[in-house]
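Comment on the following before class.
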Amino acid sequence: WNVLFDLLRDCLVEAGSPSPAAEARLLDHVRLHPFWDYSDIIEALALPAKTAWARLVAWHDRNLLVYDDGVRMVRRLHDAGFALSICSNNPRSGCLLKLHRAGLADLSRSPYFEHLFCSNALMGQKSAPHWWPRLLGDLAVPTERVLVVGDNPRDDMLMPRAAGFQHFVLV
C-alpha cells in the first residue's frame, strides 16, 4: 500500500464510495495494472482530477525535504549543456510530483531532464533484467558517456553494470 493511495481512496469516499469498497477498487486497479501511474488511477476510477492532484501536490509539499544545493547543481549542469535524465522506480507522475516540489518541473514535464525513465514507461523496476538494456536503447548515448547516480548498490550499480554502464556514484 502506497501512502498516497490514502489520498486517492479518500477522494473516492468523498465521491460516495464506501471506504472498504473504495480501497478495494483502488487495490484491484493496481493489481490489474502493476505499472500504474497516478494519472491512470485518477482517470480509471473517475476521481475528481483537480482535487486528487491538489492533494498529491500538497502531500509532497508537506512531506518532502528539498535540498537547495542539489537543485542548484541540477540547474547548473543543465545550463552548462549536460543532458540529464532520471531513471526511477516511481511512476512518471511520481517523479514529476517530486520535481515539482523542488521547483524543477510542472506536473507534465521538466525542462531540466530530457528523459524520465520510470516504472510505468519501462514496465518494471530498476532491478529487473530488462530495465537497463531497454533504458540504454531509449537513451541512445554510449555507456561511457553516462554517469549513473543512485543510492542502491544493486539497482544503481550492479544492474546497470551488467547492462554495460561503466560509471557510478552511490550516495
